[in-house]
Design goal:
By secondary structure, the chain is α/β, with parallel strands linked by helices. Helices cover 41% and strands 11% of the residues.
Length: 460
């Protein structure tokens, strides 16, 4: 996904106790046509990993780590990097997610792009940049620095593309993320207790809790879908209760071999509409903004909120010990965990960078084991070594445990808007119509199928 995504989409990080803000999800909806293709320069010489021996270098780094713990970790790591390598000066350009997404395309097509950039994983960004030859494959550096041992393949796949940009989730490695993210269920523990309920252990118990909350006059499930992409996370959560994870992955990565027009997807769409009919969402949710929704939840309006871990810091600041987080429950209490998620925006090296070795040393530094501790201390969710971090009991512990559990059991499924270059727009608009009862479940799925099939068939 996709918050302002992950996405509004895609997708980005999560934060915690001491941090002052939630991350943008690496998931932001919206797409545009890919730039004209250019040829990437070949890497003729072997990589050099001794950054101190590279001479005087100025690295220009573009990132979107602008809020709370995001900004704090980047400032701390950058200072430590320059202290360790005084021969390398960092020229940092920090922009909001939306601003970065808007300006990066133009910058990469110029003659002097930044050396290191955070690039949205999705097809309309990273996929288009790979297709245009604007990003450097990082596999030689991954080999030299041991990145494949540092990161599980379930994480690295979110930064992999075939050289022509057609296949997402496999092929060359084009980036390395710092943070992880997973979409789960935030809940107000005090409200749950007042309803005489325990955290639901199964999906049936979750729906029963929604019903009981409604009867008690509470808002069962807070949602703000004015921006269209937030419902993507809610639908993805519902969908993954009934649609096999491998089918979701095929659909979300835009591969041939799956279909939206299945009984399981119909069941998911009907269930979501049923929640509307039963009044489980707050009034006017389709016209309420994303920020307004989670802020309302933080003020005590609502029992549950389906959202990404990037909201942790802000929600914990608002609700304190009453905030808790859990993975979406399965059909049975012991069912394998399945949840939408992935990584924050990966750090990539531009193809025209004259300093790729220094750039790789920088990326290695800000994703090292020591860096993961800094991320934890500044309220972020490290994408690697998550289980090795020491965090206090409560919502931060909930989030770290959830991410470690779902990645350890290979239960992450991709954000649905990854599917095609236009799917974020298609899915967001279709979900608004579905939730507004302007389209029946079969019509909704037919709209998705058309976009998916058109792309999958033409993509070879």
């Amino acid at each position: 996904m996709t918050p302002p995504t992950r996405r509004p989409h895609r997708s980005t990080t999560l934060a915690a106790l001491a941090a002052g803000a939630a991350l943008l999800a690496a998931c932001a909806p919206g797409s545009s046509a890919p730039p004209a293709a250019t040829s990437a320069p070949a890497s003729a010489s072997p990589v050099r990993t001794d950054a101190a021996a590279l001479g005087n270098v100025t690295l220009t780094v573009w990132d979107q780590e602008v809020r709370g713990g995001q900004a704090a970790q980047m400032k701390q790591l950058n200072a430590a990097f320059e202290a360790k390598y005084p021969n390398i000066k960092l020229n940092r350009v920090s922009r909001s997610f939306d601003d970065l997404n808007t300006t990066l395309r133009l910058a990469l097509s110029g003659n002097e792009p930044p050396d290191v950039v955070e690039a949205n994983n999705g097809r309309s960004s990273m996929g288009a940049f790979v297709k245009a030859g604007q990003l450097r494959p990082l596999d030689p550096y991954a080999q030299a620095y041991g990145w494949k041992e540092r990161y599980p393949d379930s994480v690295l796949k979110y930064s992999r593309y075939s050289a022509d940009g057609k296949l997402f989730g496999e092929g060359n490695l084009y980036g390395l993320p710092q943070v992880g993210e997973v979409v789960g269920v935030f809940y107000n523990a005090a409200k749950l207790k007042s309803l005489g309920l325990r955290p639901p252990a199964t999906w049936a118990e979750f729906e029963s809790a929604l019903a009981k909350a409604k009867t008690a006059g509470e808002v069962p499930l807070q949602l703000g879908n004015l921006d269209k992409w937030p419902a993507v996370h809610v639908f993805g959560t519902v969908q993954s209760r009934s649609v096999p994870a491998d089918q979701i992955a095929t659909l979300a990565f835009g591969r041939k071999g799956a279909s939206w027009n299945t009984p399981e997807n119909v069941k998911a769409a009907e269930q979501l509409v049923g929640w509307v009919d039963q009044g489980y969402f707050n009034k006017g949710f389709n016209g309420q903004g994303y920020d307004a929704a989670w802020q309302a939840f933080g003020k005590g309006e609502g029992v549950f909120l389906i959202g990404g871990t990037w909201l942790l810091a802000d929600l914990q600041k608002a609700l304190g010990e009453n905030l808790r987080f859990m993975l979406p429950p399965g059909a049975t209490a012991g069912a394998p965990p399945v949840a939408t998620g992935g990584t924050g925006l990966p750090f990539a090296i531009t193809a025209k960078s004259p300093n790729p070795d220094a750039a790789a040393a920088y990326i290695d530094f800000i994703t090292s084991a020591d860096a993961m501790k800094v991320l934890t201390d500044t309220g972020n969710l490290p994408v690697a070594d998550t289980g090795a971090q020491s965090v206090p009991e409560g919502p931060q512990k909930d989030v770290f445990t959830a991410f470690g559990t779902v990645t350890g059991k290979d239960g992450l499924v991709p954000y649905l808007d990854y599917a095609t270059p236009t799917f974020a727009d298609t899915l967001g608009a279709a979900l608004q119509d579905l939730l507004a009862k302007k389209a029946a479940p079969q019509e909704f799925l037919g709209t998705l199928e058309k976009d998916y099939k058109t792309f999958a068939e033409s993509n070879g």
